[in-house]
Amino acid sequence: MKSIIIVGLGNFGSSVVETLLEIGQEVAALDRDERLVERIAPRVTLAAVGDGKDRKTLERIGARDADAAVVSTGDDIAESVLTTMALRDVGVQDIFVKVISDNHARVMEKLGVTETVFPEKETGMRLGKRVASRWLLNYVELTPGFSIQEMVVPHPWIKHSLRELELPKQYRVSVVAVHDVLTDNITTIPNPDEPLRDSDTLLLAGKVEDLEKVSEIK
Description:
Alpha-Beta Plaits; 2 domains; 218 residues; six-stranded parallel sheet; alpha/beta
């Protein structure tokens, strides 16, 4: 179990708190808005109303002993920068920051944060790719340049086996799993000789440019 500090309890910060609680992590939460703190307080280890830029406040919620922190302070870039610096000052090493622009991300990266998260941009990218493809259902970039995507079986592939399609050779992508949506059965080691059905979805992994070629199949 990790001890994690969440600074900022807006929609994004609250969603992170809920996810961490679901997987059994220890969470301390901080926000200036008393209503947001009161709403989350019964469920977390510690919740406080206060300023994330203040080191004493951070120490009061256990930041010195925290394994990681998430900074989600809304649209105020200066607030997130100063909060990050305060967390660094009290000894937090792993800091994840919600950013609102590419410039904001660059500033945070220069401060040496563990990771920046741009929810609006990432959601927009996923939607754009979804709208542009007949087959794409979901898309997650795991690392820069490498992604996993879920897609329905393109019409030209139906009744063909994975062996026939030769996806690693033809598209340089790997089939991670096959999901039959009618039976809800997920096969993580698909039979290469079993024909694909129109009720199947595929989970593919590969480089972004290779997955995009698959998504563009007519």
